[in-house]
Structures are given as C-alpha cells and as structure tokens.
Amino acid sequence: MVEAYHQSSQTLNILRAFSAGGFADISRLHSWNLDFAEETEEGSRYRNFAAKVDESLRFNRAIGIDTSAPVFEKTDFYIAHDCLCLPYEGALTRQDSITGNWYDCSAHLLVLDEPTYSDLGSSAHVEFVGGVHNPLALRVTDRCDPKKIIAAIEELNPVNDPSRLSIIVHMSPDAIRSKLPRLVRAVQRESKNVLWIADPSYGDAVETEDGIFLSRDFEGIRSQLRAFFDVLDMTGAHPGGVSLDMTGEDVAELKGGVLCDVDDEQAISSDGCDPRLGGRQALELAFLIAERMRLRQGLPLIE
C-alpha cells in the first residue's frame, strides 16, 4: 500500500507538471493529434475539428480575449479510486483547519462497489465515507435494486447536494438498455441529484485459449457507450462522464479501432490487468464521445 501510494503521488505530480508547463495549452491541439490525424483517412475529420478550434481561438484573440489565460493553457486533474482498505483511507484522512470538515486525502473521489453499500446497516465503508466531505460514486451493475440505490443515496447525501454523488454504470450493452431506464426513472421520481457516469470497460473481456491473458473488442466499448447515451437521451438525464481503462502507451490489448489493425492473437493484456485502451484508441474514443455530445446539442457532425 505504501508503494502504491508513492507511485500514485508521483503520477499525479507528473500530470500536474505537464499541465502547468503548457502541454495542456488548447492551442497545441494539432500537435496532440498529429499522428492520429495523418495516419488514416478517417483521421482527417479530426484534423478538421482541430482546425475549427484554431479558428475559434484566433477569433477570440481578434476580439480581445486573452487566450494565454490559465483557463486556456492548463487543466486541472482529479483522481479517484475504490474505497476498499479502511486502515489506508483512515490514515490519510485530515480535518480542514478552516471549515472543520473531514476529507480523505487518498483521492478526490471515493468509489463504493455494490456489495459495499447494499447493506447500509452493517457497512463500515458506508459509515466511513458518510463522515468525510469528498465527492462519492456508487458503482451499479445489472443486479442493482433501485430501492437500495435510493436508500444509499439518502444515506450518503441527505441534503441532496448536487456535487456529492455520482453513479457509475457498470453494465453490458444489453443490461444498460433493459435495466438502466428503471434505475434512472427511480432516481428522477425521488428528485435525487446524481451525476451519471458510463463505465464501458465492462462485460466483453474474454480469456485467451491458454487462460492466461485477457482480450477485448473496441466495438464492445463503443456499443456500451451508445447504449448509455441512448438510455439517458430517452429518460432526459444528462451524461456526466465516462470511466475508461486506458494507458498512454502504444499497447495492443484491444482489437479494433480505426488506427489499430490488431488481430485476436495480438490483442492481449500481458501484465495481468484488464485490457486497456491504447493511447490512440483512447483518443479515437474521445472524439466519438465528442460527436455524440454534439448531436445532443443539435450541432452537425464533424466532416
């Protein structure tokens, strides 16, 4: 746990250093996406999108908006993890000297799995997170009981603070379409403020023939995202985020995607973890999500 803490801290410090050092400057959009945009015909659509961002920045500068302000040049990073080991979480909990509120400093957002919050009366984890002021997330599966979800929401967010609770949807595409509408409507009937987050890295990982490695299809992730957006569009709820298993490395753990011509034998995770999106696949998926959000706003697709 100590080693994991140090590695997490170092990773977050690197992210902050890149952000503060200008790498996150939105005017660098072309350089972020250069390889992605040049290597495929489909990538030209994303180059057009980057060109439109450039055009918007030039327009802002022309009318006197300072595009060198921090809001354009850097971004803030926040981290989350599953709240599992209470001795670890407790050791990193501190009281704010001004407000007197308690915060778990191991992460910004704490995530609870379904078994952890289902039995409210006997869950030490629920008691712990109920005493800190961090934002929280409840992970729900196709086995979720809407009544138990509502009870957990009331227990953890009694004042219905809109910034307190998120719900991470951890279901297959079919389960999202059949189970999620009922849950969303139950939350809406009770007027509970939650943020809906998709977790499309669930339900389609398969073992290789030797049983050692895991593989996953990029199309499965897209199917889960489509189902998530479709259900929220149908129920009038707002999609608040997407949780992805990804790495910036040029790995080939998932088959599929415009940029990744990977066959079944190549698409394996070699380090024992669930298959992750490679850097290029993650970027491609980010653009697909952006296009879906444009449709929600009545904007045309990127041509």
From TrEMBL:
Binds 1 divalent cation per subunit. The enzyme is active with manganese, cobalt or cadmium ions. Keywords: Amino-acid biosynthesis, Aromatic amino acid biosynthesis, Cadmium, Cobalt, Manganese, Transferase. Its EC number is 2.5.1.54. The keyword Transferase applies. Pathway: Metabolic intermediate biosynthesis; chorismate biosynthesis; chorismate from D-erythrose 4-phosphate and phosphoenolpyruvate: step 1/7. Transmembrane segments: none annotated. It comes from the Eukaryota. Its cofactor is Mn(2+); Co(2+); Cd(2+). The keyword Amino-acid biosynthesis applies. GO terms for biological process: amino acid biosynthetic process; aromatic amino acid family biosynthetic process; chorismate biosynthetic process. It catalyses: D-erythrose 4-phosphate + phosphoenolpyruvate + H2O = 7-phospho-2-dehydro-3-deoxy-D-arabino-heptonate + phosphate. Mn(2+) binds at residue 274. GO terms for molecular function: 3-deoxy-7-phosphoheptulonate synthase activity. Pfam families: DAHP_synth_2. Belongs to the class-II DAHP synthase family. This is Phospho-2-dehydro-3-deoxyheptonate aldolase. It comes from Pseudictyota dubia.
